[in-house]
Structure formats: C-alpha cells, structure tokens
C-alpha cells in the first residue's frame, strides 16, 4: 500500500482533496498504526488469522480490488471502530454479488445508493441505532459505517460523480446510508432469517432511493395503515413503475408493525396486502412510460386493468426500523438490482 | 505523518474495446441498441452515414434493457453475423 505524506500545516482532507479522494468532509488519518489495529481486531477463522491482503471483491466500474486492508483504510477514514470492520467487509461482499448489479448501480443517472441494514448481534455489539432517528444523525456506528461504504465506492469502485457515477442529481443517501433492524421490537423475528440467512449477525444491502415517509397517527387497523404505505409505493416518479422486477423495502416503525401483528398479520400478510393494494391503472402507466420493463404477464393486461407496482409479493421486503411514533417509510428500488443478505463474516 | 492511500489495486479489467478495423467497405455492421431513450437515434444516424460512405450492410439487434449486461445469447448471435458492432448509451 503506497503511503502519502501529510506535511505541517496540512490536513488529511487537504491531501486527499488534492488527489481527488474523499467525500468532501474531514477525514480521520489512516495511519499504518490505526489500520493495523483495526485489522488485528478481526476474529480468526477456523483458528487461523485472516489474510489482510486477500481480495474480498472486485468492484465496478474501476475493477478495484477490495482487500481487508483497503476496507480497513476506508473504515479508519470514516471514523469506524474496529468492531465495525466485519460488517463493512460483509457489505463489500454483498456489493459484489452479481444480483446487486453494482456496475449498473454506479453507472445509472438515478440517485440510487446502497442502503446497508445491520441485523442481529453485530448491530448490538457495534452500537448501531435501530431505534429513534435510525436513518438520521447522532450515532457513530450508523454514520461512520455508512460513510465508509460510500468511501469504498468512491475510492475502490471508482464511483466518483462524473467518470464513475452518472447520477443526475446525486442524493444525500450517497454520503452514508446505514441503519440497524429493530429486532427487539419486531413482532415477526429477524428479517435476515426470513430470507434464509440464519446467522447471529447479518447484513442486507438494498440499492434504492432515500426513504419516502408514511405517516399514520390514528389507525389501529392494519389495512388503514398499509393503505398509506401502498399510496407511497404508487407513483410514476419512481423506477419501480416501469421496472416490474424492482423490490420495495418497507421500513415499518415498531408501532405500525405492532398494530399489524396485533391483528394477526404476519410479515408475508403485510407484503401480500401491499402487493394487492399498490396498483395503478395500466393506461396511466402506459401514458407515463413508452419503455416498460414489465414481466410478460403484465404486458398482457388490458388498459383498464390495475397492475401491481412490482411483479411479485416477494419483492416487497418488510423490516422493522425506528423508535416511538407513527412514521414508517418506503424505499423504492433503482429497479435493475436485487437486494443481498449475507452473514457477517470477517 | 505518513498515511495510507485509499484506492487499492486494480483487478483484471473484464473487457476491453476491440482494435478498430482499417477498411469498412465490404464489412457488415451490427447496431446493438441498449434501449436507453435516444440511443437508437444516435446509432441509426452513425449507421446511415457509414453505409452511405462505405456501402456496408447494417443489421440491428436490441438489448432487453439499458441497465443490465447484454444477454450472452444476443452477443453470440451478433458476433456470428457481423464484423463490427456499434453500441453505446444515451439519455
């Protein structure tokens, strides 16, 4: 790893800015001592230390090799603690999963950003915020790990605005986009297990928009709450409208989730109801989009039919996030991407 | 103070552009439209001009959508049909 020198009177930000690195905000100095300390904290695998220079993933469009050391450098830059490194390493594995289509995520003009959701023990031990204000500021783990993932995209993947990221307007989620699942207040158990990842700690990456708020202060009936969720899902301004394979992440706050569960609704019931309710008239969508990447059966519908905003109920992913209050959110997809859930491993 | 650089190494580049063909006359050109809005207009204009200048034959094939890599089946088919492929994106 090539070193650069920070001279007297300079900051790390100055040096990085001069080299075209960083996200524009002040940076923690990635000294060899700090990076090595972070790498030393990684747990051994099968009794053997992990290789810091093993290539974990090759990230598009730069074809950058993400090793544990490179990931640790970016983790230090962002202000992560050593216990956050396995979460980041696992997130990088997810970024490189073919289903996620990182090449497309970075090449598109859409404002897509990878949302990192931390599940289970890693969320607790890393001090991640799953409760009040989980998507907002004030928590080191959420802020630093989300930022580190973006720094890895900027530096290793080469996703700099312009040559490596064509997003027309960009978006605040591209600075950092990391939350934890509120497992303690989920009436349906953990999200990762619901998609077949039965590990003490896991991560999910969903490449989507920033959260769209859903407000319902007064309802106890699941349908009345979820009709508002369906309303947030039903707009022609999002990529899900012309791209039927796109997923939705529905981040229910604990109180909305509890209202659904109290009436006997399961996670799958919520997704099935939204699949049925979040629909638009075919003629309206045809008027809005000349190009529609719809499932073949959807292309056959008549103009007067209602078409769902995604081609399968399984594309509607329900996870509990947040604290007290009655605000949930919908996170539409970029479209040509699938979410990836993996166990946390060093 | 010495600090690390953040980028790391570069792996194998998955694909590189083919060398250009010096003489187009007598060649067959394929247009691979990725279906991004307006890509077809740009490609059609280039193809028309090349055909007018060199007498090349032009065939057109579509990718299914703009955001994902072209299917192997389409690439294999067009590679057998033509000597040159013009592709690109637009918006």
Structural description of this entry:
The complex is a heterodimer of chains A (about 350) and B (about 90). Chain A has about 350 residues and is an alpha+beta fold. Chain A has one domain. In chain A, helix 9 crosses helix 11. The radius of gyration of chain A is 21 Å and the shape is globular. Chain B contains 2 helices and 4 strands. Chain B has a 3-stranded parallel sheet with strand order 3-2-4, with helices on both faces. Chain B has a domain of about 60 residues. Chains A and B meet through strand 1, helix 1, strand 3, helix 3 and helix 5 of A and strand 1 of B.
The percent range for helix content of chain A is 25-40%
Beta-strand proportion of chain A: 15-25%
- Rg of chain B is 17 Å
Unreliable runs of chain B: none
Series of H and E elements of chain B:
EEHEHE
Number of helices of chain A: 13
Q: State the order of secondary-structure elements of chain A, H for helix, E for strand.
A: EHHEEHHHEHHEHEEHEHHEHHEEEE
What's a concise summary of this model?
The complex is a heterodimer of chains A (346) and B (91). Chain A is an alpha+beta fold and 346 residues long. Chain A has helices at 12-18, 32-40, 68-78, 85-95, 102-107, 121-125, 140-155, 191-194, 222-233, 254-262, 267-277, 282-288, 296-299; strands at 3-5, 55-59, 64-67, 113-120, 178-180, 201-208, 212-215, 248-252, 279-281, 306-308, 316-320, 327-332, 340-343.
């Amino acid at each position: 790893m090539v070193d650069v020198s920070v001279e007297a009177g300079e900051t790390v930000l100055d040096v990085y800015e001069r080299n075209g690195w960083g996200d524009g905000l002040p940076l923690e100095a990635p000294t060899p001592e700090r990076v090595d300390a972070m790498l030393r904290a990684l747990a051994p695998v099968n009794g053997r230390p992990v290789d810091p220079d093993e290539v974990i993933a090759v990230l598009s469009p730069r074809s950058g090799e993400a090793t544990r050391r490179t990931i640790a450098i970016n983790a230090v830059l962002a202000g992560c603690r050593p216990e956050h490194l396995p979460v980041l390493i696992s997130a990088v594995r997810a970024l490189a999963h073919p289903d996620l289509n990182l090449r497309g995520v970075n090449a598109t003009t859409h404002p897509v950003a990878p949302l990192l959701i931390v599940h289970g023990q890693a969320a607790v031990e890393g001090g991640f915020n799953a409760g009040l204000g989980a998507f907002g500021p004030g928590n080191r783990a959420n802020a630093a790990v989300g930022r580190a993932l973006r720094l890895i995209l900027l530096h290793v993947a080469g996703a700099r605005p312009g040559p490596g990221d064509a997003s027309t307007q960009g978006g605040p989620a591209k600075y950092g986009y990391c939350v934890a699942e509120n497992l303690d207040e989920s009436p349906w158990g953990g999200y990762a297990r619901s998609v077949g990842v039965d590990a003490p700690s896991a991560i999910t990456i969903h490449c989507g928009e920033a959260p769209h708020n859903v407000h319902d202060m007064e309802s106890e009936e699941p349908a009345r709450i979820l009709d508002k969720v369906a309303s947030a899902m039903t707009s022609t301004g999002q990529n899900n409208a012309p791209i039927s394979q796109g997923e939705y992440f529905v981040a229910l706050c604990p109180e909305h989730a509890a209202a659904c569960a109290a009436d006997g609704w399961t996670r799958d019931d919520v997704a099935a109801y939204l699949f049925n309710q979040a629909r638009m008239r075919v003629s309206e969508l045809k008027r809005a989009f000349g190009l529609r990447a719809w499932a073949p059966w959807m292309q056959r519908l008549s103009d007067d039919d209602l078409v769902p905003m995604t081609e399968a109920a399984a594309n509607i992913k329900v996870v509990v996030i947040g604290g007290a209050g009655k605000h949930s959110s919908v996170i539409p997809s970029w479209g040509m991407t699938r979410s990836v859930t993996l166990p946390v491993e060093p | 103070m010495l600090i690390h650089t953040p980028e790391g190494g570069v792996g194998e580049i998955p694909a590189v552009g083919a060398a250009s063909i010096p003489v187009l006359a007598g060649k067959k050109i394929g247009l691979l439209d990725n279906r991004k809005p307006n890509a077809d207009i740009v490609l059609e204009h280039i193809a028309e001009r090349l055909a007018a200048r060199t007498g090349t034959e032009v065939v057109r094939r579509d990718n299914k959508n703009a955001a994902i890599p072209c299917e192997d089946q389409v690439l294999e088919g067009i590679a057998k049909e033509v000597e040159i492929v013009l592709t690109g994106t637009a918006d």
